[in-house]
């Protein structure tokens, strides 16, 4: 298959797109033991939350309370018995790490604000449709399940869909490209018949006012 027959005309492999490192290996089941381990641990955590009645916040608070209590008592007893204190890493964030994190978050927020501005001012009809459909999908899914189940389901999807796609890449790309081209034609018709008319009506109203 040439690059024109791939989704988005991509030339890189799925492994390369996912970063080519350990994360990509886990998502594509090239580290099978690790991938299975993550799924099993996550499933166990989900069962614990569902059966025990704990929430994520209450369990996290309990774990930190137990951890800090153990470390505090360890340090106090070590001082009394002249023993070494608990071994802790250097709990400090360098200025470089903080600046990198702030720049990363700032860039993504600016992109989000720019997209929001384009939608609010009617500059990008296609992006409006994408965002509206995404929010509608999130709303429907949110009404059907809770956050914990949604997180576990998302993790299962992340650890299965890329691997399945890599295995059946040629067939999926062929059908997806056909569907994408058909949806583009439908959107062009929708844009011409509905959105463009609405924008024209708004402009006419502004001129009259």
UniProtKB/TrEMBL annotation:
InterPro entries: Reticulon, Reticulon-like. Keywords: Endoplasmic reticulum, Membrane, Transmembrane, Transmembrane helix. GO terms for cellular component: endoplasmic reticulum membrane. The keyword Zinc does not apply. Its main location: endoplasmic reticulum. It is found in: Endoplasmic reticulum membrane. The chain crosses the membrane at residues 33-49, 55-75, 127-144. Residues 23-184 form the Reticulon domain. It is a multi-pass membrane protein. This is Reticulon-like protein. It comes from Abeliophyllum distichum.
């Amino acid at each position: 298959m040439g690059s024109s027959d791939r989704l988005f005309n991509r030339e890189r492999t799925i492994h390369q797109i996912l970063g080519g490192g350990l994360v990509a290996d886990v998502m594509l089941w090239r580290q099978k033991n690790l991938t299975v381990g993550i799924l099993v641990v996550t499933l166990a955590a989900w069962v614990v939350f569902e059966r025990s009645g704990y929430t994520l916040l209450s369990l996290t608070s309990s774990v930190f309370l137990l951890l800090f209590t153990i470390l505090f008592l360890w340090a106090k007893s070590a001082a009394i018995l002249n023993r070494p204190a608990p071994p802790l890493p250097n709990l400090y964030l360098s200025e470089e790490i903080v600046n990198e994190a702030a720049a990363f978050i700032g860039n993504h927020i600016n992109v989000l604000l720019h997209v929001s501005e384009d939608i609010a001012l009617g500059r990008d009809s296609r992006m409006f449709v994408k965002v509206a459909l995404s929010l509608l999908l999130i709303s429907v899914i949110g009404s059907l399940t809770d956050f914990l189940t949604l997180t576990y389901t998302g993790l299962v999807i992340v650890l299965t869909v890329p691997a399945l796609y890599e295995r059946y890449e040629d067939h999926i790309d062929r059908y997806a490209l056909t569907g994408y081209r058909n949806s583009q034609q439908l959107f062009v018709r929708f844009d011409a018949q509905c959105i463009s008319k609405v924008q024209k009506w708004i402009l006419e109203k502004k001129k009259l006012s």
